[in-house]
């Protein structure tokens, strides 16, 4: 107990390294320390594209856009390209149907039934293209439904013709489904799905051809094999385009975010120049000269000038004090007693900021820091937050309960620990005889416990109070070759 009291008394003396918060000059602030094959966002458009030459046809799901590309636009353009591929594929497939029907016109009842089947295929194709235009990339069940329609068309068409007629105009479902299988590569996802769809079409075609014409199975293989190359190629190209679009949109989003941050920094710099050239110069002139007769008011102006200089020079760099940014609460004002040659680390600057705030609230706080060379840069952000928050609460307790208007803050790096102390020469109390208040138990001990730290309270009636905060530090970096 006697050793701790002597330490408390020594901390309150004015050593060469002491910095009065109201009398010091401001210190400059330190420096800042989509998967492959996945969908790319691309909702459908809300109206027709301007200048299109296809009046009366469904319009692509993405409108042309003028100006620089925006994040997400590459994915939307890929969706639009898929729509065009689907539209062109269905148009080519229906063109084959039209040629076949034109060849067999006047074929009696078979022709009428074939025309009805062709009309059903045209309606299904129009509905598919229109749905893609309205909602953008469709779910996979739409691809399976389209595949089922194609298989049903092969079976129905084979039932309309018999024998060698299967190999004439009457079996138009074969060229239709062959070209229409482009939709399998556009609508389905995953290699096994895109591979299974054409195999299904090939099997249905071979069985229908064999049962209708009676030709041997090997004769149907060449035509059936034609299905196997279309959907996989379309699917591979579509996957590659989606992947590249996702990467492009991601890079554009990062670039846009960086540009926005740069704009904020430029605006802050402009404001800082205005504050420095006008308000700050005036405050510093008033604080240094004999313009203000009242010493307390002159110190107050100097403190506010220090806060403003800290804000101007540090800008967005902010050490959190009690859950708030010190730039909004307080800022360091001055050198720390060892000449102020080194730039303040986060913890050091935060303690100076805290002292400045308390000075403006009527509590004169002295900050004692070790000689030059103390490595406060080892204190990580969360540990500094906890130490500053606990120190803030300890100074609050001084103002509420100590009955004095002075306090001392000291800080050091002791081996693998950061240590901060708050000392006052106030009324003191007997820790064992008084239950801890919420400020000490939650705001101080709770904060320190979150970072693995400890709190030591040394007090006695009439002898003041010392609160010592200790928090572990990460080991220093090991430099190779050193």
Would you kindly provide a brief summary of this structure?
This is Histidine kinase/HSP90-like ATPase domain-containing protein. The protein is an alpha+beta fold and 482 residues long.
Q: Can you give the helix content as a percent range?
A: 40-55%
Oligomer state of the chains in this structure: single chain
**Main sheet characteristics:** 6 strands, mixed
The gyration radius over C-alpha positions equals: 40 Å
Q: In whole angstroms, how far apart are the ends?
A: 42 Å
Q: Approximately what portion of the residues adopt beta-strand conformation?
A: 5-15%
Strand order in space, largest sheet: 1-2-3-4-6-5
Q: Tell me the overall shape.
A: elongated
Average per-residue pLDDT, rounded, comes to 75
Biased composition (Low complexity): 11-27
Biased composition (Pro residues): 58-71, 472-482
Pfam families: HATPase_c
GO molecular function: kinase activity
């Amino acid at each position: 107990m006697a050793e701790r009291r002597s330490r408390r008394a020594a901390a309150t003396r004015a050593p060469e390294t002491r910095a009065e918060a109201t009398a010091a000059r401001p210190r400059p602030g330190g420096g800042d320390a989509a998967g492959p094959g996945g969908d790319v966002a691309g909702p459908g458009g809300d109206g027709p594209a301007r200048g299109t030459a296809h009046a009366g046809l469904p319009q692509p799901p993405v409108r042309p856009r003028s100006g620089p590309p925006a994040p997400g636009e590459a994915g939307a353009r890929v969706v639009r390209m898929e729509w065009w591929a689907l539209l062109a594929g269905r148009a080519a497939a229906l063109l084959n149907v039209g040629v076949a029907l034109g060849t067999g016109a006047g074929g009696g009842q078979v022709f009428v039934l074939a025309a009805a089947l062709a009309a059903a295929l045209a309606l299904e194709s129009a509905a598919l293209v229109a749905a893609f235009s309205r909602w953008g990339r469709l779910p996979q069940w739409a691809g399976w439904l389209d595949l089922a329609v194609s298989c049903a068309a092969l079976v129905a068409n084979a039932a309309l013709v018999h024998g060698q007629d299967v190999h004439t105009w009457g079996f138009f479902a074969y060229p239709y489904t062959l070209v229409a299988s482009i939709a399998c590569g556009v609508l389905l996802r995953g290699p096994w799905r895109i591979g299974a769809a054409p195999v299904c079409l090939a099997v249905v075609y071979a069985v229908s051809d064999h049962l209708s014409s009676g030709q041997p199975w090997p004769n149907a293989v060449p035509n059936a094999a034609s299905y196997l190359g279309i959907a996989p190629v379309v699917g591979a190209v579509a996957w590659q385009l989606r992947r590249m679009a996702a990467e492009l949109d991601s890079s554009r989003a990062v670039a846009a975010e960086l540009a926005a941050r740069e704009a904020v920094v430029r605006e802050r710099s402009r404001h800082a120049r205005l504050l420095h050239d006008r308000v700050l110069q005036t405050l510093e002139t008033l604080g240094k000269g004999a313009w203000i007769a009242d010493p307390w008011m002159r110190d107050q102006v100097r403190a506010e000038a220090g806060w403003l200089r800290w804000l101007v020079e540090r800008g967005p760099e902010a050490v959190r004090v009690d859950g708030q940014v010190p730039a909004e609460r307080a800022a360091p004002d001055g050198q720390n007693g060892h000449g102020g040659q080194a730039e303040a680390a986060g913890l050091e600057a935060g303690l100076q900021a805290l002292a400045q705030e308390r000075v403006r609230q009527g509590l004169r706080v002295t900050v004692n820091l070790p000689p030059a060379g103390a490595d406060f840069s080892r204190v990580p952000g969360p540990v500094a937050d906890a130490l500053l928050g606990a120190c803030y609460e300890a100074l609050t307790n001084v103002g509420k309960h100590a009955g004095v208007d002075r306090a001392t803050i000291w800080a050091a790096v002791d081996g693998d620990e950061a240590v901060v102390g708050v000392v006052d020469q106030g009324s003191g109390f007997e820790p064992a005889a008084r239950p801890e208040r919420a400020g000490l138990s939650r705001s101080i001990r709770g904060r320190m416990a979150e970072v693995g730290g400890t709190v030591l309270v040394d007090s006695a009636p009439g002898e003041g109070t010392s609160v010592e905060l200790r928090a572990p530090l990460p080991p220093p970096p090991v430099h190779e070759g050193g």
